Amino acid sequence: MENQQPNKGKQLKKKQRKQVVFRVNFLFFTVFLLFSTLILRLGYLQIVKGEDFVAELARVDEITINTTMPRGRIYDRIGHVLVDNEPQNAITYTKTTQTKARATYDKEGNQTSEDGMLEIAEKLAAYIEKDDRRVTVADKRDFWILLNPELAAEKVPKEERKEISSDKKKTSKQIDREINQLTRDRITEEELNSFTQEELKVLAIYREMMAGYAYSPSIVKSEDVSEEEFAVVSEHLSDLPGVNTTTDWTRIKLSKSAILGSTTSPIEGIPKSHLDHYLSRGYSRNDRVGRSYLEQQYEDLLSGQKAVHKNIKNRAGKVIGTEVVYEGEPGKDLVLSVDRELELELEQMLEKTLRDLKQSSTASKLDQGFIVMMDPNNGEVLALVGKQIVRNEETGKWDVLDYAYGTFTAAYEAGSTVKLATMLTGYNEGVVRLGERKIDEPLRVGGIWKRSLFNRFGRVSIDDVTALGRSSNVYMFKIALSLGQYVPGRASSIDTTAYDKFRDNFASFGLGVRTGIDLPGEVEGVKGPELTVGKLMDFSIGQYDTYTTLQMAQYVSTIANGGYRIAPRVVKEIREPSVDGIQFGPLLQETPINVLNRIENTDAEIAQVKKGMNYVYYGANGTAARLMEGAPYTAAGKTGTAETFKDGRSTISLSHVGYAPAENPEVAYAIVIPHVTTHYTFQTSATTNNLVRGALDSYFAIKERRAQEGTESEIERLILPPIEQVEEKN
């Protein structure tokens, strides 16, 4: 028994030791697992997620500063400045996330914190002049509350606040919003009018400071900052935290051409309609952006890149300075394909024509005119000219306004100029053959007589070339009737797919579809809704669907270059900003030629249509015979007259398309003058003919002079001064 007792004690102790060892081992193993997990986690965070966290830190600490980088310049093809930047002194203010509206004070009135925006505005008001024209009633209410916090609190008594707060359905934000609105509404007119002139100046400055965003400089004053104001503020910057003196840029238009577009000002900022678009791309609300046409279309290139600064914080997390990470860069320069000298001459011609026409009593509906010239081989637009003539209500005289964008946003019936497309459609669809003769004679369809202008009652045998040269309506009617499988005497019997065939073929030339120009707002035109035989005949002579002047230019260019529809382009080159202001900056990109499609007609069919266009100018009975007499160049074209309507009145609209030289086209043109007259005479069509001759004379004269001067042959072209006496600020 005695031996069993010690053995039992030994076994118990041994068992206890084993348990201790197990527990210690388990503890060590657990600690090992925890340390292993921690090490793995740290490794994962550093190796796998390291770059992500660095990027996140950069997003927090690196901020894009709304610096006033100058926008890219815009030049014409020769180098004349069309849009420039004008530097001007500016005073800015940048607030941070710690900036307060005003400083805090103790009961004795001693300032207990750093200056807030109100105190800075008061100091700044002593150094600069600032008008209060932009101060609103809402601004005055906010400012009165800021200056009179105790009186403002009394506007909504405690009992009323308690009652508003007792509504359990309202959130704390809704309660604060309601109390704030009641406070604002109860500020009297007398209180709003109690501000002194000096306080209004402080308010005008304060509202500009408040308008900015954290770390984004807002312009307090940029127009008419005197040298004295600039110097005094610069001298006292140490007493004006957040205030800076810098150089701002004003956009200057040196050309009247509307397609250049415009920009917003820093005060306007981003238009509400495009706010989400720009904010998602890193813009600030008060950034100036392109508002229309070229300035809008090429905003990404023209705007440049903002500077990026990195915040420097102390241990408390307060920003104590910034460090430049990226200095930003100016916008890229655009060199247009447009020849502004040529464009100006065309504008003067068109303006004189509209003024002369407007003298007639039959021109009551005339109000617009358009000219487009382009290179048919590469799509470069040489001139986009549009004019509106309107009565000045004050002077009673006629004013002529720029309407260049109407060349691609306004569509009209083009008349006989589309007969080239009708003939090519006939060839392509197999309803007319090369050289085929048809009888031009009056046709009676659906009880209505339809005739050619040159042959009212007789029967004349003509081939396809002569039909184009003399502008035979009947020849085109018979193509349309064949395409629609019309049975004589059955006016309702027509294959309406003829419309689709016509429109598909016309679209391949650029008629009735967007041309692809690098400008916003282009329209396709209007397609007639009725599908009758009479309307099909009208379609074939250009008196049904409507087309823009630019579409007409693309259409005739397609014929001129042998059948390739090329997208028109206004921007020829993208360049780095000029280093010295004398020569263009390095070339970044030349806009490529964009061939949209090749028409399905054969070379022989296109050549046959070109013969018809030559007949127009040089044939004995051509509709513009002798127009090119004495010209040192050759040309080919097609005239057009359409019976149209405006404001319930019957009118005549004119068009004219063509290209030159006839044997090797280098320029194509389209002219449209809608609603020229309410009473047609044969002299009416001379209007567009004269414009064509004048435009071509100008084009070749300018070309010859430049060839002698070597203007366009220089590898590094010089920046040339504007050629217009215009200076419009955006």
UniProtKB/TrEMBL annotation:
Pfam families: PBP_dimer, Transpeptidase. It is a single-pass membrane protein. The keyword Cell membrane applies. Residues 70-322 form the Penicillin-binding protein dimerisation domain. InterPro entries: Beta-lactam/transpept, Beta-lactam/transpept-like, PBP_dimer, PBP_dimer_sf, PCN-bd_Tpept. Residues 369-686 form the Penicillin-binding protein transpeptidase domain. The keyword Transmembrane helix applies. It is found in: Cell membrane; Membrane. Belongs to the transpeptidase family. This is Peptidoglycan D,D-transpeptidase FtsI family protein. It comes from Savagea faecisuis.
